[in-house]
Amino acid sequence: MGLTLVSRRDPLASSQVQLNRLAATKTCPPFDEKLATSGIQPLHATGITVFQINVGKFCNQTCRHCHVDAGPARTEQMTRETAELCIRVLSQTDIPTVDITGGAPELNPNFRWLVAQARALGRHVIDRCNLTVLLLKPQADLAEFLASNRVEVVASLPYFQSSQTDAQRGDGVFEKSILAMQMLNHLGYGVEGSGLALNLVHNPVGAFLPPKQDAAEAQFRRELTRRHGVTFNHLYTITNMPISRFLKFLIESGNYEGYMERLANAFNPAAAAGVMCRYTLSVGWEGTLYDCDFNQMLDLPLGNGAPRHIRDFDTAKLNTRRIVTANHCYGCTAGSGSSCGGAVT
């Protein structure tokens, strides 16, 4: 069930090959042309309110939709030196939110240090969690650590039933995810008035757009409470991006051209104007700077004269930088839009 980890020998593993494939799509025009006809080209940042740190590709799961191409065999990990550069930058800015992602970010040896340092600076911290990591024996105290530091947990849960979730994330993942949610609920996460936020992420199990976010949230809340007695704060719907493993799935299943056409036809100028890259800065595990985590996975660093590494951080230049775009950006601008915080409009 699901796809195997994409190896470096895979013809789609190269970021340039993926970009060439996206650019050659017959069923949709170049993304920049779509922006231009909507009057929002070129796209510029409006400041930085989210400092997203990708600490590496090592993960305890191998998910078929993963745009990071993460898994147990990946060795890319952010070093302490690069983590210290991130904290140094934060100490010199007033960026309010630190969003830590991976892979499974908690498995990076510097994860807890990053959390503690960011919290000491008074920043709100988000942990992009796959839930099952909380059940690993070496992470037995992880949930308590997150709670004691008031870390917001944004957890992946493709569906409220096991069949769809396991098809996307691996056999047995749903059951483990429910156990992890019960553990978090016991600590106060997702409980009204606790101040401990547990938000879920839903992305479709297939080559189609996500449902309306409000309707999906109500359905998940009803079914998870009824079936398993677990609660959460909000549900975010996210579009599967046509890169990495999901691109491989689209091509192998014969859905690639149709999916790209679906995204392009659903282009929403309002969603494009509010995309997360306008207020987010993404830091790669080596310290390279990107407009978003998706650009990071396609090796599209900042351009147009903006600093390209965390050591060269320049607030003035980064706050108004021109965003680097390509055809994968249709994924964030289709329908209600898609971001790390869910629907845009």
Q: Your description of this structure?
A:
- Helix content is 35%, strand content 10%.
- It has 345 residues and is α/β, with parallel strands linked by helices.
- It has one domain (15-333): TIM Barrel.
- It has an eight-stranded mixed beta sheet.
- Strand 7 (280-283) and strand 8 (289-290) form a beta hairpin.
- The longest helix has 16 residues, at 213-228.
User: What distance separates the N and C termini?
Assistant: 34 Å
Placed side by side, the strands forming the largest sheet appear as: 6-5-4-3-2-1-7-8
Whole-number radius of gyration? 19 Å
Spans where pLDDT lies below 50 across 5 or more residues = 1-9
CATH topology: TIM Barrel
Q: β content, as a range?
A: 5-15%
| CATH hierarchy class name | Alpha Beta
CATH superfamily: Aldolase class I
Number of domains as seen in the coordinates:
1
Bulk shape: globular
Share in helix = 25-40%
**Secondary structure: number of strands:** 8
CATH architectural arrangement? Alpha-Beta Barrel
On the 0 to 100 scale, the average pLDDT is: 92
Q: Major β-sheet, in short?
A: 8 strands, mixed
What structural class results from the helix and strand content? alpha/beta
Helical stretch count? 14
H and E string: HHEHEHEHEHHEHEHHHEEHHH
